[in-house]
Write a structure and sequence with these properties.
There is one protein chain. The chain is mostly beta strands. The two termini are about 25 Å apart. The longest helix has 4 residues, at about 15-20. β1 and β2 (about 40-45) form a beta hairpin. It has helices spanning about 15-20, 110-115, and strands at about 25-35, 40-45, 50-55, 60-65, 70-75, 75-80, 85-90, 95-100, 100-110. The protein has a domain at about 40-110: Sandwich (Jelly Rolls). It has a five-stranded antiparallel beta sheet, with no helix packed on it. It is built from two helices and nine strands.
Amino acid sequence: MAEATDLATSLTVTDLLAALPVTESATTSRVVVNNPLLRVVVFAFDAGELLTDHASPRAVVVTLLDGAIRFKVGEVEHAMAPGDVIYLAPGQTHALVADAPSRMSLVMVDPAAGA
């Protein structure tokens, strides 16, 4: 588990894409924010890398930063281009395949933690 990010303290992360290059034949990630309310992770995928069907108990927002990814929500596949956003309701099954070297941001929100 990544080091916790204090919920009451602001944070700035710069030059993140340079700090997370795409690695040949690999999927890598970096946790940017991690607290009970919010978790932000940036992923880098080489072409052909994939994540198999899985789900999160939290709400999830995925943003493609660069590259090209086929992102499956349930049984529906979406061809994502840079700047595209997908929202996943808690428990929604999803998977992906990188068609090109790609980086994406994944934000998980647990609204119950903020109550």
